Amino acid sequence: MASHADTMTASAEGPVFHLEEDHHPENGTMLGFWLYLMSDCLIFAVLFAVYAVYGRSYAAGPSPKDLFDLPLVAVNTSMLLLSSITYGFAMLEMEKDRQKPMQVWLAITGLFGLAFVGLELFEFAHLIHEGAGPQRSAFLSSFFTLVSTHGLHVSLGIVWLVTLMIQVNQRGLIPENKRRLMCLSMFWHFLDVIWIGVFTFVYLMGVLQ
After folding, report:
1. What are the phi and psi torsion angles at 109 (to 5°)?
2. pLDDT tens per residue across span 23-40
3. Cα angle 32, 104, 90; round to 5
4. Distance from C-alpha of 89 to C-alpha of 13, rounded to nearest angstrom
5. Rounded Cα–Cα distance for residues 69 and 75 (Å)
6. CA-CA distance, 139 to 154, in Å (whole number)?
7. What are the pLDDT digits (tens) for 95-117?
8. pTM of the entire predicted model
9. Per-residue DSSP letters for 60-110?
């Protein structure tokens, strides 16, 4: 007896089973990823709220104006913004089914992402060397938590990017790989938006206050 998902029809060659529904519908994948992004929004909203509360609790220690190198942060911000643009170019090539140019743009995106993470680690190392580690004050604890959480997301995005480049190289631009690239595109642009908030709310307002 056939299940509700399958129907059986008779033919000269014997029974033939027809699957009436897709086990991995594209809309279901995209919806699930949107739900994940919404949960990430809540995480960052909480971290921004914590920084808003503790961002001026210096414990007689250094303030943002004393610590932040705004030109360096501006360069770092440009790295992430450029990576978002190059990922957009990769998506345009994907729509044209041009695999090699798409892979080139993805590689450039990954390099910009690595530059962003590298500059962020350099900034952290400099602050810790100056005695402004996360244990110094509530301000620095909330700062390191917020910025490093974003940096961790970018690092995982780079790993995801490299994995997809390997999969595309092995299997081509099949529908499944295109769907995965679209999910990563949403994730990457989401991190871009979050960083603009970090740059404005944490760095820019901190230096100008």
Report:
1. -60, -45
2. 455 566 778 888 999 999
3. 40
4. 50
5. 10
6. 23
7. 999 999 999 999 999 999 999 99
8. 0.84
9. TS--HHHH--HHHHHHHHHHHHHHHHHHHHHHHHHHTT-HHHHHHHHHHHH
